[in-house]
Amino acid sequence: MGNREMEELIPLVNRLQDAFSALGQSCLLELPQIAVVGGQSAGKSSVLENFVGRDFLPRGSGIVTRRPLVLQLVTSKAEYAEFLHCKGKKFTDFDEVRHEIEAETDRVTGMNKGISSIPINLRVYSPHVLNLTLIDLPGITKVPVGDQPPDIEYQIREMIMQFITRENCLILAVTPANTDLANSDALKLAKEVDPQGLRTIGVITKLDLMDEGTDARDVLENKLLPLRRGYVGVVNRSQKDIDGKKDIKAAMLAERKFFLSHPAYRHIADRMGTPHLQKVLNQQLTNHIRDTLPNFRNKLQGQLLSIEHEVEAYKNFKPEDPTRKTKALLQMVQQFAVDFEKRIEGSGDQVDTLELSGGAKINRIFHERFPFEIVKMEFNEKELRREISYAIKNIHGIRTGLFTPDMAFEAIVKKQIVKLKGPSLKSVDLVIQELINTVKKCTKKLANFPRLCEETERIVANHIREREGKTKDQVLLLIDIQVSYINTNHEDFIGFAKYVKHLMVIRKGWLTISNIGIMKGGSKGYWFVLTAESLSWYKDDEEKEKKYMLPLDNLKVRDVEKSFMSSKHIFALFNTEQRNVYKDYRFLELACDSQEDVDSWKASLLRAGVYPDKSLVTENFSMDPQLERQVETIRNLVDSYMSIINKCIRDLIPKTIMHLMINNVKDFINSELLAQLYSSEDQNTLMEESAEQAQRRDEMLRMYQALKEALVIIGDINTATTFTPAPPPVDDSWIQHSRRSPPPSPTTQRRPTLSAPLVRPTAGRGPAPAIPSPGPHSGAPPVPFRPGPLPPFPSASDALGAPPQVPSRPTRAPPSVPRGATRCNAPALYKTTVVFFKISRIFSRSRPRLNLI
């Protein structure tokens, strides 16, 4: 290909692409699009072909490009082309590419000059191109021909606007040298979307076809009709050259010879021609790349930080280091110990927000689960009282005892203490399970080394199992110690003497006496206090005003059916000797809000020796009131002593587990784990990696090095390339803004374009004097007047709303015109203006609001 400037930029971009390829990523370097805009037969396709370096676009007269051609250049080792509508088919002959473009255009638009906004997508793969997008657009036209719609100008304009309004699009405004530059539609459109002129480059074609004795020197020097980025003149191949198969390389040599030999251009030959246009465009690409590099650098640095965290154990030594395995083993065992310590003791850098784990879960076992297991040992009240009764009777033997025996108390207490072994051993099991779970979580960092992970879990788990036996033995020993001696002199124990002196309160609560009338003080709530000897009730819970105290001798409990009108649940107390219970009442009916409250009170009364009526028939219970008092006394003393034992066990069991299990495991991991790993297997065996894990580790290390190298390459690109600042703004007010108007009606008659013949200065004249500037801020001399196309007739609404305007006289051309500019024929222009004026006068009489000019 012939784009030498592009080939100089390719190595820089390739280095950046290679750096990202080493990371397994794509370099999303979105280079600007280049759109070629101009009128019909202005040479747009030739400019595009010269830039690409291939002859592949259709040629001819009139409108040839009838659909947008989106040409994507892709860097590749092989050179071929592909169409989006012909997926999978590769074109290696670019003459076939031209024929396919023509056929695809005709397929959509027809054979009679029709147009379509549906683009043709073509990709050209080559080692001589950058990843660019070039857009060949239909030429701007005003008069429809063939099958073209009446609003052809509007459609082509909208089609062009779809592409050039993007900020990432460079605009090549192509204008032939043998037309009026001041009325260039390409420059007008570019001015509309790029008012600052930063994306617009003027291209002057057909310099070799100008009339003899004329030139475009002042325009190309950016003195006349200036643009911010100036103009570049090019000489394309003629149709004769194309028919004669003149290649692009030979055409560029001929172009170079033209600029060097032409007297008006030889002093600016280095700034003319297709190579210079390529240089200008490539400098814009270089500027874009340099603007993009900071974002790439930030992205790479962010990835480097994340990679450093992942390969922290490896980044300080190379993969081929023979001591790597030894260092890695030592570091991983140390890290395992640190992680285990943190999970048990707690830390801020490893916080699990999904569930309790490690030390937090063990703490919950100690202070919530273990006490709950103790409380959960619900005693069957009837069974317990039966056991106490049997113990008292068996101790008295054949004799009837007068006093409550101590031995019955001790027998019952010891039996209850032994029951604590179950919850205590269960707490040890729960702690062991959590320790093993913690070990598994800590070994996740060893997953890259399956044997090391497996051996570490096995060794630590075996040690935990060894400690399990010793811990459970110690827990059982603590329980046996409590059983071995019943300390009835404990300061918190109520004792026999204290119990006799201060009768224990079994239950307090609100009850309603339901079988006594309201007039006699019934059917209202009282505060009831139940002890082992009596049932008393008070006015309120302050217990200052006692209403009555009912002894529990010979009292029994029975259920009372709930009445239809009452929401209360009722039970009744009665005397087994048919005596009145309270005043004149044989029954004392007590009401609660729920059945649960009834059952609870009945259980409390059972503890006080007040049995249900139906239980009297069972042979297991004695009807001896003295025995019942003794049972109740021992029952309450058992409660008192067991509360002391529970408090002691709840304190000692966690301490025992902490000392014999948790702390010991931590010490083992810190001091003996590494030695046992070395003694269990060979170091190389422990540090063996699976193929996938070894590949991932090597990829992480390579990516770490590649990221560093990519950052260095970005620095080299910044050093090897230069940034060219944008030229200063110029006064481009000479470009008339084209207003975007709605498409004209199909019935609208178009006026013919009137223009005066052009008279160009002869080559023999000397330098033309400069035209005086109209103002201090004007950046260019005024353009000689040239009548443009007439506007269409206004609609009726416009005619009614606009006042008549008197046409002004045309400005005469100055006596001399700068070189390269056109000059009007004054007599012909004057005659034309007079005709316009007369026509205006005629229309102003019949339609006073018609504005013809």
Report on this model:
The chain has 853 residues and is α/β, with parallel strands linked by helices. Helices cover 45% and strands 11% of the residues. It contains 23 helices and 16 strands. The chain has helices at residues 4-22, 44-52, 94-109, 152-164, 185-193, 217-220, 239-243, 248-261, 274-310, 324-345, 359-375, 381-396, 406-418, 421-442, 450-484, 495-501, 595-607, 625-671, 673-680, 683-686, 691-720, 796-801, 826-846, and strands spanning 33-38, 69-75, 80-83, 120-126, 133-136, 169-176, 200-205, 231-233, 505-513, 525-531, 534-538, 546-551, 555-560, 569-575, 587-592, 611-612. The strands form 2 sheets. It has an 8-stranded mixed sheet with strand order 3-4-2-5-1-6-7-8, sandwiched between helices. A hairpin with a 7-residue loop joins strand 11 and strand 12 (546-551). The radius of gyration is 53 Å and the shape is elongated. Its EC number is 3.6.5.5. Its main location: cytoplasm.
Brief rundown of the structure:
Its EC number is 3.6.5.5. The protein has 853 residues and is of the alpha/beta class.
